[in-house]
Amino acid sequence: MIYKASHIFTIAEEPFEGGSVLVRDDCICDIGIGLHEKYPNESVVDLGNCVLMPGFVNAHSHIDYTWSRNQYDALNLWDWISQVGYRSGREPDYDTALNSAALGAAECVRSGITCLGDSTPTGAAAEAISKIGLRGIAYYELFGQSMGSDYPTRFQQKLNEVCKLHERSSKLVRIGISPHTVYTTNIEVMELCAGSGLPVSIHLAETWAEAEYTQYGTGPIADWRNRMDRPPMITGLTPARTLEKAGLLKNGTSLAHCVHLSDDEIGLIAKSGASVAHCPRSNAYLGCGIAPVTQLKAAGATLGLGTDSEGSCMRFDFFEEMRFALGMARASRQDAGVITAKDILRMATLGGAETLGLEKDVGTLEIGKRADMIAIDMGDVLAGEDLSLAVLSRSPADVVMVTVDGVEIVKDRKLAAQPSR
Fold it and tell me: What is the DSSP string of 289-324?
């Protein structure tokens, strides 16, 4: 199949007009102008006045929690977690979690997201991502605080569950593991995660209170944990230094948020090989702060863009997330030149793929990569508009087509029924 569009934006190179992409089976086989003449026997889909580009990669999400959207306002993170978090006696049945995750996955796809890095406490996200035909990593979440002294056995049980979840998932979904945070997981369990050989995701330095708790055992997180009768997780180190000690600052680890970091810690993360999933709307709406994204970028850190859950970002609108990321970064530095719309688009595509370790397969339109593509209607774009800014100005309603591994999962702006993979 040849997909033809008014604009081709590969992310790897400058965009160009009047081009096409040849897809055979699940891969991109050619990109250029006049492919219908070069391959006269191939069918052609003319997308018209659209930009054809790689699908967005949502580097950090929680689609299990879609049910919690728009329920709690004006709560700081620790109080918000008390309302939406799963724990003993407050866990939904699996079907409820699956329905919630399926709704979230569908909303992600309608926003042009083709790949997710999702942390799931139930495993339902892996099934939902598989059924809708998305690509991704489902990080099976654990809380080391509840494992007690029997943590080696409990951790092995979690690994067994990871294996079973992998068997139930599609070929497009990898299973990782997610120790929730440094203040809900003991360092011994984090060390086991580091040695597991699995992709790892962990929330890090999301609020200022996190460092006060891990170093001194005081502050609002200490009060919150005391109210829940949870054991202390005090290391005497900052959250980033705690991860370093546990061996988790390395390739294959995705760090969600990273709002409160020192200059030294920014350099530490950039050199470590660990990646950062930046979630600007969630950080703003929960009063966590503004992540030092331009400083991380300048230090050479791998940066992807994420939404977190709809419980904190309101809706899985990746266009809004990109605009928010651009505006907040410029506002925090009081300098419009510190980051460009093209930088944000790279973070939303190739940066997200790099964050999840999937950059060899997705994130750009290049020959040999998987055919994960989106077509965005540019019908009312005026002459002279910057294409990167024009893409950021769109909305989910403008997503005309989505393909994952060469299969159209959105066609003519509607979700298509998917074959099992």
Answer: ----HHHHHHHT-EEEE--B-HHHHSS--HHHHHHH
